[in-house]
Specification:
CATH class of chain B: Mainly Alpha
Number of domains of chain B: 1
Shape of chain A: globular
CATH architecture of chain B: Orthogonal Bundle
Number of strands of chain A: 6
Strand content of chain A: 5-15%
Chains: A mainly alpha (333), B mainly alpha (394), C alpha/beta (382)
Oligomer: heterotrimer
Number of helices of chain A: 14
Distance between the termini of chain B: 38 Å
Number of strands of chain B: 2
Structural class of chain A: mainly alpha
CATH topology of chain A: ABC transporter involved in vitamin B12 uptake, BtuC
Strand content of chain B: 5-15%
Distance between the termini of chain A: 38 Å
Helix content of chain B: 55-70%
Structural class of chain B: mainly alpha
Largest sheet of chain B: 2 strands, antiparallel
Chain lengths: 333, 394, 382
């Protein structure tokens, strides 16, 4: 166990871990919201995120072209703002599609939860594969050459041509915190606060909480549960779109199965923080990100996933409902 | 019938009239005969190679082996998900423990004979199941999913990073089960006798003397003996499954699954029975893993035990009908068969598979072969709907 | 009524049984005579590897190389064409085993280009060897494969030990590195290669780490490399992770040399890392530079640019085609032909030793300069 390494680089490992965890947390919000309202694990949420990352990359290619360029965060903000909007719209659209195709038909029939889970898994495979055969799909419409920059080599990694170089801003310990770190962590916290307020104060938010608490009573009180469920998925999608933008700023590349691993981590984070709890989702994400880095430092990066899962099990043994425990249904969200 | 009541005592009661007799087909004898014929046909499949069922782009014997392996795993997972109602997303971990125990004991570090290693692998996997279950089964139902997923990954990552277990390179040269027959001349033995395959010319069967399966040789060129062995193992496990399900253990599982608190109140030690379900499921997973390791390739590596397979196994059980052992077999066989049958579609295979999952589940949410309780529940619901509908109309 | 039903079923079963016995048997299915005097029609070359799934891109590169070679050959031999049958194993050793049985049962297949990965090679080697089907792998580099005693298994690519030793030599002699940090991924290839580099470097190794394929955030590894004070680092693995690692290293301020092996020697590496971060990176490969028009010809036949292992599979296919030209029509003859083959392919000189390894494995160092991977002027490593 390499304590010296962890000690000497504590701030670097922690802050980069927080940045990674912030992205986990934003994706976890989607999982936690759907679980809070429907008590279902949304297996297809990982693909909602993945489509968002492609939207960001495609917007950058569309505006900037395919030449490689390295820029700081400042000059790129314009393109990034447009990409952010595109990603949120795309992810929200895919989330709505998931709800319409994979969930609604089965929920209407009152199908058991396990069946809906399989439908979500099937949707997840389908969406990932659609991205993986996009060159052939484009070929059907004769657009394979026109859209070559966007669809060729469909199973390969797809990179954004603009590399965003982080700029060191101020030191904490022996690590210079960069503008990208601040942007990611700040955005995640900001989006969580916005969502928090939304669920607490708006009518739609109250509706979400009502359905989460007791769907039948909510229906009796005039809440349209179909609308609520749609809204839940859409909001989760928007959060995933934001996460996708931040992910592309930090990592810069994506592929058709990029969502899968991240989805598992994000779901782990949601459970760690208390599934159904919005603040718990972000907290769980941050804890997971930091734990992965500390675990990598202590045991070597090959064991980081083992560390993450062992941590999850320990947390659940000590606090069976997750760190923050309470669910979306309770007033204190 | 009034006439029989007035008969004096001691007189034999006449047989009921023809319209009340059970048709022979419905009798137990007939059913057993059908099952026996069905089993014989199953054994004959890789020899007969019926035209539509055969996979054109992939060896049919190998595909059948893979189907039976998945079916066996599905039967084991059915105990955990279907009978006991526990969502296990890390079942591939048990598969791996069984396979690696076999690999380590027969090839990597020791050279024990296969027949000795098989029970050891099952026992080790069962112990793993208990170790895994003891802390996690106390966790709430839906959390169990992510914890079991985590365990599956922990096992895979540990294997990848432990050179003693072969690491990323895997374990090779795992010996196959012992063959019957004279000593080998050349690479594979000749076996006790050779069984020629059937080739089809349109709808005319022809005996294909070029492709023969030696009986009973576990070699490297023919997958069929492995299939027969796996099928036999599956049948034995099925019988055991029937015995357990019909016993008080099965009833305890049903009670636990339907309403855990009520079961506890009635004195069922639910935790112990859940742990038993886990352990038995693990044992079957370990058995399947052991058969995989000593399969035709004689090679195992961590890439055979990805999280993806856990999800496929769960999909297999649920599509087949969770809680119904035949449903689990059908589900497992289908999940293994469909991608292989439609290999011609190569790049589109997985996309079609994903769509097929959604379609099957949407149009038949109870699964292909739902268990009796689900069928009963659905019938009752349909009756109630009818009655309520009539009430509204009238 | 029950009895009638029962009789019907018994009748059906016995009819089926009788039908099966009242049939003939097939003759030898190797009916390959044709009008041309020395053309055996219907010869097929097979490919076994991952064309879909997470490593699908690599398999598609290999298929592209095979198709290019076959296209050239079939244009020149339009009366006696050779067919192609790809078998997609998704890199999974278990799927590969079933496909291997299928391949050896198909009498039209004269040879196999593949298997693509080391895992599948190990699980199918015995089957191909027992059937006598010759195979030439363009990409499986695990050293132990050629130690199994399979006379039909060959590879046109240098194995990990050769490449690892060359990398260590380069780092010591050319780069004059004082401290080297070695990172590998969790694949058999990556761990194997990194292991040989480590043993070649000995005491120069300043630290090691191991990441996972599919990982995208390497902050812990980056911190480790920086804090070890290494002036050079080597990554054993593929271009997806290599590119991201290089990018994150440069962004964190690492100024030393970034080096990786043939798994990263692909234009995608530069795209993923970004031109700035990839600048100055050294990527080794056991293959010499391909002729300048290879990519253009490749793109004309397939509709995407060539990539890693395209040249190797092109060469492997051409060896089989040369064998067909020389009239080798059965497996044993073809295998002998391959064993005795010497020639020069687009990846370099090719001749096989008695284990199936390529004899001369000259390792070349390719440099990334000015935003491009320079595939034309690599430095050979002695």
């Amino acid at each position: 166990m390499n304590f010296a390494f962890l000690f000497n680089n504590f701030f670097e490992l922690t802050i980069t871990g927080l940045a990674l965890g912030a992205i986990y947390g934003l994706v976890a919000l989607g999982y936690t919201m759907v679980y809070g309202v429907l008590q279902l694990i949304n297996f297809a949420h990982s693909e909602v995120f993945m489509f968002g990352t492609f939207a960001v990359a495609w917007v950058v290619v569309f505006i900037h072209g395919t030449d490689s360029a390295t820029q700081g965060l400042g000059p790129t903000l314009g393109i990034l703002a447009i990409a952010f909007v595109a990603a949120c719209l795309t992810s929200a659209a895919i989330a709505a599609l998931v709800e319409r195709l994979a969930y609604r038909p089965l929920m209407r029939r009152g199908a058991p939860k396990l069946i809906i889970l399989i439908s979500a898994i099937g949707m997840s495979f389908t969406l990932a594969e659609v991205m993986g055969v996009r060159d052939k799909l484009a070929g059907w419409f004769g657009l394979q050459v026109r859209l070559a920059d966007y669809v060729s080599q469909a199973r390969n990694v797809y990179s954004s041509p603009i590399t965003i170089n982080p700029h060191g801003l101020f030191p904490i310990g022996n690590y210079r915190v960069t503008d990208v770190d601040l942007l990611i962590i700040g955005s995640a916290v900001a989006m969580m606060v916005v969502l928090d307020q939304f669920v607490r104060r708006t009518r739609l938010g109250r509706g979400i909480r009502a359905v989460a608490q007791d769907p039948e009573s909510a229906a009796l009180m005039g809440v349209n549960s179909t609308r609520i469920v749609q809204a839940t998925f859409l909001i989760g999608g928007v959060m995933a779109g934001a996460a996708a933008t931040l992910y592309m700023i930090r990592i810069g590349s994506t592929r058709q199965n990029a969502g899968f691993i991240l989805g598992v981590k994000a779901f782990t984070a949601a459970v760690m923080g208390g599934i159904g709890n919005l603040r718990g989702a972000l907290l769980g994400g941050l804890v997971l990100g930091v734990a992965e880095n500390w675990g990598s430092a202590l045991f070597g990066t090959q064991w980081k996933d083992v560390v993450a899962f062992v941590l999850l099990i320990l947390i659940l043994l000590v606090r069976p409902t997750g760190i923050l425990g309470e669910s979306l249904a309770k007033a204190r969200v | 019938m009034s006439t029989s009541e007035t008969q004096p005592r001691g007189r034999r009661i006449p047989a009921p009239p023809a319209r009340f007799q059970v048709p022979w087909l419905r009798t137990r004898q007939a059913r057993l005969l059908m099952i026996a014929i069905g089993i014989l046909l199953a054994y004959a499949l890789p020899i007969v190679r019926p035209p539509i069922l055969t996979t054109p782009d992939s060896d049919f014997g190998g595909v059948l082996t893979s189907m039976t392996s998945y079916a066996l795993v599905a039967v084991g997972l059915n105990i955990v998900i279907g009978y006991a109602g526990l969502l296990d997303l890390g079942y591939v971990g048990f598969y791996a423990v069984g396979a690696y125990t076999t690999g380590v004991l027969t090839a990597q570090h020791w050279h024990w004979p296969f027949l000795l290693v098989l029970p050891v692998a099952i026992a080790v996997t069962m112990v793993t199941g208990v170790i895994l279950g003891a802390p996690t089964l106390r966790v709430r139902g839906d959390y169990l999913a992510i914890v079991t997923l985590g365990f599956g990954e922990i096992i895979r990552i540990t294997i990848t990073n432990t050179p003693w277990l072969g690491g990323a390179a895997g374990i090779k040269d795992i010996p196959a089960p012992p063959s019957l027959g004279p000593d080998p001349v050349g690479v594979d033995q000749d076996g006790l006798f050779q069984i020629p395959h059937i080739a089809w010319n349109g709808l005319t069967p022809l005996i294909d003397n070029d492709h023969k399966t030696p009986f009973l040789v576990f070699g490297v060129l023919d997958a069929v003996p492995y299939y027969w062995l796996l099928l036999t193992v599956l049948l034995i496990v099925l019988v055991a499954d029937i015995l357990i399900k019909e016993s008080r253990v099965g009833r305890a599982w049903e009670a636990t699954r339907e309403d855990e608190e009520a079961a506890e109140l009635m004195g069922v030690p639910t935790f112990r029975y859940k742990l038993l379900a886990f352990a038995l499921g693990a044992a079957i997973g370990g058995l399947a893993g052991s058969m995989l390791a000593s399969g035709q390739g004689g090679f195992i590596s961590p890439t055979s035990f990805l999280l993806l397979y856990s999800l496929l196994f769960v999909a297999a059980v649920i599509i087949g009908g969770a809680g119904n052992r035949c449903g689990a077999i059908v589900g497992g066989a289908l999940v293994a068969y469909l991608p292989e049958r439609f290999r011609g579609l190569s790049d589109w295979r997985l996309l079609i598979f994903g769509i097929a999952l959604m379609v099957i589940v949407t149009f038949r949410p109870q699964g292909l072969l739902p268990p009796r309780r689900t069928r009963r529940a659905m019938k009752v619901e349909a009756e109630i709907e009818e009655l309520e509908g009539e009430g509204v109309d009238a | 009524m029950g009895t009638k039903h029962n009789l019907r079923i018994l009748a059906a079963v016995s009819a089926a049984g009788l039908a099966l016995t009242a049939c003939g048997s097939t003759g030898s299915s190797n009916s390959s005579a044709s009008s041309s005097s020395d053309c055996v029609s219907g010869q097929t070359i097979a490919f076994l590897g991952a064309t879909t799934g997470p490593n699908g891109a690599l398999g598609q590169n290999m298929v592209g190389g095979i198709k290019l070679a076959l296209d050239d050959y079939n244009k020149a031999h339009s009366d006696c064409t050779v067919a192609f049958k790809p078998f997609d194993s998704q890199g999974d050793p278990d799927q590969a085993t079933t496909l291997a049985t299928q391949i050896v049962g198909d009498d039209s297949i004269i040879g196999l280009v593949g298997p693509g990965f080391s895992g599948e090679s190990l699980s199918t080697g015995k089957t191909f060897s027992a059937a006598g089907l010759p195979s030439i792998s363009p990409s499986a580099t695990n050293v132990t494969i050629t130690q199994q005693g399979w006379p039909t298994w060959h590879r046109v690519i240098g194995n990990d030990s050769a490449q690892g030793a060359a990398v260590a030599t380069y780092l010591k002699d050319t780069a004059k590195a004082k401290k080297v940090f070695v990172v590998s991924d969790d694949s058999d290839y990556g761990k194997g290669l990194a292991g040989y580099v480590k043993s070649g470097l000995g005491s120069l190794v300043a630290g090691t780490d191991s990441v996972a394929t599919g990982q995208t955030d390497f902050s812990a590894t980056v911190t480790a490399v920086k804090s070890s004070g290494a002036d050079a680092m080597f990554y054993g693995g593929y271009y997806s992770e290599a590119g991201l690692l290089a990018k994150q290293l440069r962004q964190a301020g690492y100024k030393g040399l970034f080096m990786s092996g043939d798994g990263s020697e692909d234009a995608q590496f530069v795209k993923i890392a970004g031109a700035d971060a990839a600048e100055g990176a050294i990527l080794t490969a056991p293959a010499g530079p391909a002729p300048a028009d290879f990519d253009a010809k490749y793109q004309a036949v397939n509709s995407s640019p060539s990539g890693l292992y395209s040249t190797q599979s092109f060469d492997a296919t051409n060896i089989f085609l040369a064998g067909i030209d020389a009239g080798k029509t059965d497996h044993a003859d073809m295998n002998d032909f391959i064993g005795a083959y010497t020639g020069t392919g687009v990846s370099g000189p090719i001749a096989f030793d008695e284990n199936g390894d390529i004899k001369q494995s000259a390792i070349f160092a390719y440099k990334v300069a000015n935003g491009k991977l320079d595939t034309e002027n690599p430095t050979p490593i002695k």
